Amino acid sequence: MQKRSPLGTFGIYATVIFTCAALLFPIYWMILTALSPRTRLREYPPRFWPDDPQWGVFADLLATQPFALWMWNTILVAVATMILSLTVGVLAAYALSRHRLRGGQGLGLFILTSKMLPATLLVIPLFAIFKSLGLVGSLWSVVIAQATLIVPFATWMLKGYFDTIPPELEHAALVDGCSPLGALVRVVLPVAAPGLAATALYAFVISWSDFLYARTFLTTSESKWTLNVGIATLKGEFVTDWNTIMAASLMAAVPIIGVYLFLERYLVGGLSSGSDK
Amino acid sequence: MIDFSSPRHRAKFGYLLLAPAVLMMALIIIYPILLSVDISLQDVRIARVGGDREPWTLENYDWLVRSGEFWNAVWVTAKMVLTVGGISLAIGLATALLVNQKFRGRALARLFVALPWAVPEVVATVIWAWMLDSSFGVVNWALLKVGLIGAPIQFASNATAAFFAVCFVMIWKGYPLVSIMLLAGLQSIPEEQYQAARVDGANVWQRFLFITLPSLAPVIGVTAVMTTLWVFRDFAIIYVLTQGGPIGSTTTLSILTFEQSFSFFRMGQGAAVGVVTLVICAFISRALVGRFANSVH
Amino acid sequence: MATIDFDNVQKSYGEVHAIRDFTLHVEDGDFCVFVGPSGCGKSTALKMLAGLEATSAGSISIGGRDVTELGPGKRDIAMVFQNYALYPHMSVRSNIGFGLKMRGQDKADINRRVEAAAETLELTSYLDRRPRALSGGQRQRVALGRAIVREPSAFLMDEPLSNLDAKLRVQTRSEIVNLQKRLGVTTIYVTHDQVEALTMASKIVVMRGGVIQQIGSPDTLFAEPANIFVAGFIGSPGMNFFRGPVEIENGRAQTRFGEQVVPLSVSPDRLPRGEAIFGIRPEHLKIGGETGGTPVSLGLVESLGTEKILHFPTPEGQAIHSLQKVIGSDDAARDSTTMLARVIDDRRYSDGEHVRVALPEGKVHVFDPETQKALS
């Protein structure tokens, strides 16, 4: 590596800081607006620094709106989806990774293809099915619908992790007297723990971000809404109430941003797996 | 009771593990897809499972080919794919190259550069909706201040402006994935190749042109296909920002499918649009699946 | 303590036969090595014995008990893997004790046996570390510890030394042999390295293309290879081969090597008419006599101190062109137009020097050019 000149170093930092500032401005603007008193939002020119931050906005939001309920619903759906897709995904991914199964390759391809299904098409038959099962308006409808995307994704991601674990590990466990299931539970899963965590959190992120399914299946009763449906509706109804909307948005974004900051290293591997092999 | 540890029966254990996933895929993906084809062939308003069914007809597809709405949606989708795909790719490549440089704090810069990835689509959309607000939005203020425009742009009611507003949000949500994937691609290029090129006297631009780009080409290809599919399928951004309007200027195939089915309750027509979209997506993803197929085994 | 029997075992993947007609009897307490080039089926044979791969036909017994349909955990065997396959999330103690725990031994008993095994392998001070914190040699010993603590009826080892550096490998080689002698447990050991096979085994099974080529003691394989493949594979370097005429003189068979007439110890009626393939080990060649033998010009001289490997061209018209196919392609150093001689003396040899090479009587092997089998 050549030594960079002081001017070059300055150039790099200036570019990085300018780029990050430009790209992340919307996030800053969301935080700033959330903290601004409502009256300030109609002043020209806009202020770029929170000189009078209103921290109470979050407490107000949790107290007055059905907001807390929406958040709770979102958490319920995300956790249920995460557990469901991880359970089914772990078993399938392990089988695909380890056993030379007849049709296994076709299934692998199918799992990949299902990532590309247009969700707005799938939502029509699912609506018809849930309608006849009486599931419309139930959080379960959203969990099941999200599984169409998240189970294939989790399976694919987990298969990638299992592929990196040498099969000799389970062979050793089998020789040591484990049953095949015992080898999976006692040896493979503990070794794959980082991959399981990454997949689980990623499933959580996808579920948390869903709008279409919640909007379609839960629209009738406000108490069943998720955060995203709530926020989208707030935007339509209270056009002037931008500080409340931004505060709600901030609270909806924070868990995902937290997961991202924690998981970034794993995501790079998970998202791009298969793209460069 | 079968002893699954026996070498003879170990494969059966594999099928057993696979069973829940296969069953689930069949019930919640395959069956619904077949059902949607079935719905698209019936003249139904609100589809139900069981009960009376309409006779099969090609009426919905006939409507599709004749209606201006469908062709408008195809045109809007194509424009959006090109705009969003092109610009996200450019920003993604630029940011990936930037944070691939060696400097102190690079890990932090990598984290920040792709941060919009972690903002839920609905949240990203309402942030932009506020920033693009025609009366008090910061974007209009900045443009007026610089003197680029004389009067605030009406992002909600001007067809062209609304289209670009949707594109802004999509690009902002879409470039981080491109950046993340291209960065992974950049990191897999061995440093020796650059050193060898430097010894051969290649300058920065030549090294980019003859080493970086060819090595990245497969990843760029996959990324382009993934971004295209994402634009095709996206619902939340457009629906929350413009609901497809004004006058259809942001109605993509995905929005048209939803609108027909759940706004006008013409599920037969909606399903027909969706099935056609599925076929188009299948053709596009063949490029991707072809690449992935090699890594399946 | 047990005998091991393979009875006509087959393994095929669809149309591809990985193992054919594998029949082998291993005595109680034997150290049996499966050796052969990569892809010869030696690992597959071991995995079938372990119960990690299903057989396509035939049966396998351990200690007289048919285990063909049993799972690996029920065969009373222990295995050491090439990459050691230590459980990374467990301490060394738990790694060694895992097999006992799975068999429901009580805690105190497990602990006692783990400590005893650790004592034997000098691992006592590492018992509470994770495998990640150990060196390659220490990991290898943990893998051995996991095997010996169970006191199984057989040890299976799949190239356990190939991840060690050269010096440690030689040292560990003798440690494993001593351990096996002391415990007296029947051992099947897979390797691609014929030196390991010769130095460690009491019985060697040479394999190629899924078929057993020869079974025998190290001495037998070295002195009486059954065919050209075994002759070329065993020994370092392997045997030299050349084509030569079969002549009968006064009722005795002889051939020619360059100018030299080489008498053969094989009776004439067993020899093919016309031509045969002959083999001579590099260490049996006599170099540098004043008369006799045939003159050659040295191509390359590799010196390893006292020992020297001399390269010289095979006499005109006596090279075997299909040799590469016969020996297998893994022996890249071999080229059918060059012969090697291994000498230990104080003379200095230089490239291009002219010396006389002689083939001593009684050291020349004869092979059938059609079947490639040894004739004697």
Automatic annotation (TrEMBL), chain A:
InterPro entries assigned: BP-dep_ABC_trans_perm, MetI-like, MetI-like_sf
Record membrane topology: Multi-pass membrane protein
Transmembrane segments: 12-31, 70-95, 107-130, 142-162, 183-208, 244-263
Keywords, ordered alphabetically: Cell membrane, Membrane, Transmembrane, Transmembrane helix, Transport
Pfam families linked: BPD_transp_1 (PF00528)
Protein location: Cell membrane
Domain ABC transmembrane type-1: 71-263
Family: Belongs to the binding-protein-dependent transport system permease family.
Cited PANTHER family: INNER MEMBRANE ABC TRANSPORTER PERMEASE PROTEIN YCJP, MALTOSE TRANSPORT SYSTEM PERMEASE-RELATED
Annotated protein name in UniProt: Carbohydrate ABC transporter permease
From TrEMBL, chain B:
Places the protein is found: Cell membrane
PROSITE patterns membership: ABC_TM1
Keywords: Cell membrane, Membrane, Transmembrane, Transmembrane helix, Transport
Annotated InterPro entries: MetI-like, MetI-like_sf
Keyword Cell membrane: yes
Bilayer-spanning residue ranges: 12-34, 73-99, 111-131, 151-172, 208-230, 236-258, 270-289
Topological type in the membrane: Multi-pass membrane protein
UniProt domain ABC transmembrane type-1: residue ranges: 74-288
Name of the protein in its database record: Sugar ABC transporter permease
Species whose genome carries this gene: Tropicimonas omnivorans
Higher taxonomy: Bacteria, Pseudomonadati, Pseudomonadota, Alphaproteobacteria, Rhodobacterales
